[in-house]
Amino acid sequence: MALRKKISQTLVRVGAGVVGTQLVTAATVNTIASLYRRHRTPRGFPYLEPTAVDVGEDRFTVYTYGAHLYEAMLEAIEAAEEYVYLETFIWKSDEMGHRFLDAVSRAANRGVRVACIWDVFANLVVPPSFFTFPPDVWTAPYPLVRGGVNFLRPRNSGRDHRKILVVDGKVSFLGGYNIGTLYENKWRDTHLKIEGPFCAEVESTFVDMWKSLDRRHLPSPQGRTWAPNVRLHRNLPRLGVYPIRNIYLDAINKASRRIWLTHAYLLPDADLVSSLLDAAARGVDVSIIIPSDSNHPLTDWLSRAHYDTLLTGGIKLFLYEGAMIHSKTATVDSIWSTVGTANLDRLSLLGNYEVNVEIVDENMAHLMEDVFRTDLTNCHELTLDEWRARPRYARLAEAIIKPLRPLL
Left (φ > 0), alpha (ψ -120 to 50) or beta: where does 314 sit? Predict the structure, then answer.
């Protein structure tokens, strides 16, 4: 018994030591990277002018520059006659944040029904006083903790990572952009403006979330149709439903020519990695644009655990330089595209509330390919030789924190 107890104590100490080493290493790389970035000035980056494509009865406009998007969103709010529904993950209390707050307040003051949702956790650094609206603005912040005594259940742990605006059922917006001055011209992201009957699908997404948070009634949208080429996919943690991962797997497995992905955070699970490698093995051009350095240094280090496997398997990695690229987009075989809020990581694909539009249309795919090619002009291709020549301390740090990868 004494020997068993001694062995048990030793194992506990060893385990604690390993975990402690991982946490210290993670904190160290995160701090060093953050200090380095503090002294780096973001530079300009290439982008396309807002460009529209008609798909069936709907018009989709692609935005790749925040200033253009925000002006279009604010213009839509100012023109609202019936209702404005706004949902965002981050809503900063800076100049742009105040512009949106003022715009929805003015809309409510002129009799427009206004409802707003934002994620409390994502805005912990925002002064609570910022979220002060006129009484006529309905608000339902997504709570810091949900589920009461069952808050630790996986279905209650997801954050509201969506970014949606719906105005009068006629125009809607969704994509990767949060609300803030930082994103206006210093981050590269991708967002859609949708005009036409498909707006009812985006509106339904907002209304369903509202109903889960607040008892005040919002009417369900009318006129929802069966659009043959466009579908809206929602990850819903409270229901255990995560379709966005599946649309990626399906498109990757069908690909015969090219798979072009742009993602802020690349932490794919084993099935996604296997599907991408299989595609490359059958001759598909698999190219992925990711930040050279993202806004989450630890995520970058964890993401790098995949690099050797991906590069060895013939997948091309392009590092976006000089600015944060926050897009969550893909286009496959010049026919299939998706734009939305979901990253290729566990938090998005199996954790958070997300929304992606899936579009099967050649014109839309060609436009998304133009966006991808434009982004490539600001990228550096990472080769296998270059990757394997990285410093030994980097290899050691990656090995130590690799077990933390399932957390993200």
Answer: left
